[in-house]
Amino acid sequence: MLGSRLQAAREMAFVGREEELAVFDAALYGGGCSVLYVHGPGGIGKSALLRRFAQAAVVAGRPVSVVDGRTVEPSPAAFEAEAELVLRDADAVLLVDDFERIQGLEGWLRERFLPRVPMGALVVIAGRNPPDLRWQADSGWAGALEVLALRDLPTADAQALLDSCGVAAELREVLLAFAGGHPLALLLGAAVAVKDGGAGRRWMPNQDVVATLLDQLVGELPSAAHRHALEICAHAYMTTEELLRAALPQDASRLFGWLRRLPFVESSRLGLFPHDVVREVLEADLRWRDPEGYTAMHDRIHAHLAERVRTASDADVLGAVAALLYLHRDNEAPADFHRCRDEGEFQEEVLREEDVGTLVRVATAAEGAASAACAAFWAERQPEAFRLYRRTETGEVVAFTAWLRLAELDEQELTADPVVAMAWAHARASTPLRAGEHLAVSRLWVLPPHCENSPVMDVIQWRVIGNCLRAERMAWSYIAVKRLGKAWVERLRRYGMRDIPEQPRLGEDAYTLFAHDWRAVPARAWLERVNHLPVTGPADGPETETAELAVLSQAEFAEAVRKALRQLSRLDALAASPLTRTRLIAERAGQDPATALGDLLRQAIDDLRHDPRSAKLHRALSVTFLHGTPTQELAAERLGLPFTTYRRHLTAGIERICADLWHRELYGANAS
Length: 672
What we know:
One of its GO terms (molecular function) is ATP binding. Residues 14-187 form the Orc1-like AAA ATPase domain. Helix content is 50%, strand content 12%. Strand 9 and strand 10 form a beta hairpin. It has 31 helices and 16 strands. It has a 7-stranded mixed beta sheet with strand order 8-9-10-11-12-16-13, sandwiched between helices. A 5-stranded parallel beta sheet has the order 2-3-4-1-5, with helices on both faces. By secondary structure, it is of the alpha/beta class. The longest helix is centred in the C-terminal third of the chain and has 25 residues, at 643-667. The radius of gyration is 34 Å and the shape is elongated. It starts with a helix and ends in a 5-residue tail after the last helix. It folds into 5 domains: 2-149, P-loop containing nucleotide triphosphate hydrolases (Rossmann fold, 3-Layer(aba) Sandwich), CATH 3.40.50; 155-204; 216-326, no CATH class; 346-544, Gcn5-related N-acetyltransferase (GNAT) (Aminopeptidase, 3-Layer(aba) Sandwich); 554-667, no CATH class. Helix 25 crosses helix 31.
């Protein structure tokens, strides 16, 4: 019969769940609870588990009745009519499926129906939502109720499920990456992939699979705003009410409360996150259905998280950077964000005096005695620059890093560390530091095998990126590495860190220095470029996409300002000015550079008018450069000044404009 065939196929597709079956068996044979409440997101296997419970009950010789929340009328009378067997037979087993469809009966069930069930009978309730907290608050239910949260299948069980579907070994890995241990997603993906004989490692779920999973996992949503809130939750690593408000200002508080009650959304100390499969299908659906809307949502979240990196406390920087990089998980983002959600495998700490001995031992084991001597030298000079990384479970220290800030180097420092000396020489030979600027050198000492693809390297990278994005007046950054895996090196290049040709040596070991000029590509511009990197972009990083900013010395800058003032009326001449490629103009995004430069110079002249001490300078500049006076002699005549006096005012005014704009170039438009 067809029914037998269907049952046999279902039995073949059932794997795992040994713990849940053991709990049910204990209850079935009188050694456990009277009510078993199973909850989990759609497609997680609740119905399959209830079918296995029913088989076990039949084998035990107990009568079984089933109430299906999809078909029963949500009223006490209708429910009791379907479930009346369990009220009159102490051997009966009642299985209630899809309870979320009749969740309104939960209070009545707890207070009125279940207390009438005879001792010995067994009731199993299965639904998407966890039980109301009033079950736990009632001490009477303490021994009678057991709650099971149904989770994804473990990897071994998920592989066994795919094997039962005839999935080839080369396809199994990609299906597991997509579906994890979610049974429905595994079965749907397997059915489509096996049917597609050409499917391989690049298999992706088609829209039929995505639509089916969305219907089963998410279902109908109350409104477009609710859908958008869920899409934001799927895109971000963790969703807080603050993030939701930044991406969806209207009703953020109400929508956050709705999100946290969804059966496929979980809570952690960092915020809310959806089940992995829900995240994947929502992302795939929005990208396919509304690519422009997806990009707009991504950019809003990216801007919010980038600002969080800049403003977070030092203790919160790692999490802020991790959340930002998570947005680029399809763009070869380095970290495996499924390793942990609340507590990391490795913890970062500041260096204490008693840690210096450990630093030397780790540095010696990682890179040898010469490198360890450098670590000890800098630990004495800049102890605040160091961080240590220990395994959370054991407390074992596996890595140290240093972020050395250097505005000038003395002879002892140059001699003590060839790596830092080479970075200093490279900066001086390229575009030297200007007044008030510094460079930074990142040093790391990581015990093998952690220097390859290890979670601690992810944490270290988050700290380095946070240092770069939060630095004030940093001209250059250098990352010194002795040995790193190929993927890590390619990632550094991809994100715009260029390895310089010179390789400093410590003893017998050569080091590679990855450099970035933050004046040529400032933090905001770097973030923008990283945000728009293609999924498979060029290996030499973001700088290849657009022109870098010009890094001028003070003398070069002043000469460019003088020339631009003389050419203020000629837009074509201003377009050729190197000032159009400086930070001054980059801050005026959205404007034509030549027009922006002209507006900036006019505004700088006009600003002098508000200072009584500079009024005479303003008049000389205004007549000379703003009013189209053909000669300086005529300008002096119009001002009623002797030519020498006019020249003195004009020269002082130009110097004042140069100084004001130079200050803004160094410190930004809002600097006082």
